Amino acid sequence: MWHYLFPALIMLQPCDALHIASNIVPRDGTMRSTRCMATADLCYDEGTGASTGVFTYVTDSSFDELVIKQSSTNPVLLALGATWCGPCKVIEPHLRRLNSQGDVVVVKTMLSDKSKPLREIIKYLDDHGHKISALPLCVLFYDGEPIDALLGRFSAKQLACFLEKQPVLGTLVRKWKSQQPPAPDSLATAEPLAEIAESGFERIEHLDPRIQARIRAAAEASTCSRKFG
Description:
The protein is α/β, with parallel strands linked by helices. It has two domains: about 50-175, Glutaredoxin, CATH 3.40.30.10; about 185-220, no CATH class. The chain has seven helices and eight strands; from the N terminus they run E-E-H-E-H-E-H-E-E-E-H-H-H-H-E. The radius of gyration is 18 Å and the shape is globular. It starts with about 50 loop residues before the first strand and ends with a strand.
């Protein structure tokens, strides 16, 4: 059943995997709500780690086995996201392709208000210098330790560059990078805007107002911020 909120808001569809208790607040202070983005491969049971589609989902009870121990023999990329996070959905195709190659294991965890089994993971990352301040957050583990992290939305090219700079991965990244499909023109145009936005808004004030608006929109859309833990 669809529920109507206020005339100014769009319709929301209830989902047990998600609490839309606090909407994302943009810099201009306005409120906006989004439809529940939870799909079959994002909604999951809180357990010891269940495989859903191409990903294995990790909770506190399975973190040591699926991430720490597994990374002693294979690089493991822990992708942290949430059902309400749009950028998390954007990066999913890149994670799927990386995981299907088999050389880097991609495991996921979805943070929500019901994520009590994830508190130890959050604490572990915080203690090791990877505090979750925004989503998506992808943390690379190798030899039982987190060695680097990638924050925010990224393209296939940006993921390849992130992995390529890791000495421990060697030729694995070059193999994966060679398998990437060419980016559509629209994505190729949007990515430089996001990169400009990340460098600071003070550099764009001289640009056409319409260009400024596109850059600011790209920055807003690159991450989702929320209080965790």
